[in-house]
Write a structure and sequence with these properties.
1 helix; about 5% helix; globular; mainly beta
């Protein structure tokens, strides 16, 4: 991993530099408490690193697109927006569908054919995605990664706006899913002092789903793998979101969730953050 300090932009304690990871050009966003490694051609995050140095995504290029082995490598990423069709892979690290640039203190990405455009803005503990323009295909917002920085579903937990913390780990390889109309969710690990959260701020109502995909036919009992969480993801691999503009937020909450009281605190934080973002249209935008 080689840091290429070609260009820097500092704004509100956020520094964006050009870097290389997995043989691809990245924009490395360093905030006060986290690092966000953005694949410029893929249009998605291959690494999201907490203040303790743990990577909650862990994308790797190889093996590429092998079911289920790539649950330990190329399936991982965020937000992995477009699935299927001519623009398949837009928003997913490892693909080459996009052009990205630093603008207005954040990152603006467009698909190469100009049909999609989205913008990321960054803060100390979270990042905001605004989908400004979309093509004709539906999309989803996925978190496919490893809570706490390693595959350990027996030590993972999660929660959403209906309840938590939950220890249920549906086996994706076996066809199991948890589904619901969730507007936000968080993910944690017993040995981590924080959780990672995702929320839809102004996206339309649609099903969400969660499962754990192991990288072998042993499913959850595999030696490696990832979470499969999606807003606008049907039980099967079918994107359901259709609206633009749309706003999402994701980031770290610097506390673990051990019980119902901890869940209530996390819920209050996520709800209030989403409400503030909704009030101001998702984020403050700079020049295109």
């Amino acid at each position: 991993m080689v840091l290429l300090t070609v260009a820097e932009l500092t704004m509100a304690q956020v520094v964006i530099t050009r870097a290389e990871y997995e043989a691809a050009e990245h924009l490395a966003v360093r905030s006060k408490h986290s690092e966000w490694w953005y694949d410029a051609a893929g249009g998605g995050f291959s690494r999201i690193v907490d203040r303790g140095g743990q990577d909650w995504v862990g994308f790797r290029r190889e093996p590429w697109n092998v079911l289920p082995a790539s649950a330990a490598s190329s399936y991982r990423g965020l937000p992995n927006l477009v699935f299927g069709g001519e623009r398949n892979g837009a928003g997913h690290p490892g693909f080459d569908r996009c052009i990205s640039r630093v603008a207005g203190g954040g990152i603006v990405t467009e698909t190469r054919d100009g049909t999609w455009r989205w913008r990321w803005t960054f803060h100390d503990d979270y990042a905001v995605l605004r989908i400004e323009q979309k093509g004709e295909e539906p999309y989803w917002f996925l978190y496919e990664g490893v809570p706490g920085g390693r595959y350990a579903p027996q030590r993972w937990y999660w929660g959403h706006d209906v309840g938590g913390p939950l220890r249920l780990m549906p086996d994706f390889v076996a066809g199991e899913r948890a589904t619901g109309p969730w507007r936000w969710a968080y993910f944690g690990a017993d040995d981590s002092p924080r959780v990672f959260f995702v929320a839809r701020v102004s996206a339309e109502e649609s099903p969400s789903s969660f499962g754990v995909m192991g990288n072998t036919r042993r499913g959850v009992a595999s030696p490696d793998g990832m979470t499969v969480f999606g807003f606008g993801r049907a039980r099967e691999a079918k994107p359901l979101l259709a609206n633009a503009p749309a706003v999402f937020v994701c980031g770290f909450l610097e506390r673990c969730v051990k019980d119902a009281r901890g869940h209530a605190r996390a819920a209050r934080f996520i709800r209030e953050l989403a409400a503030r973002l909704d009030d101001r249209g998702g984020s403050r935008h700079g020049n295109r």
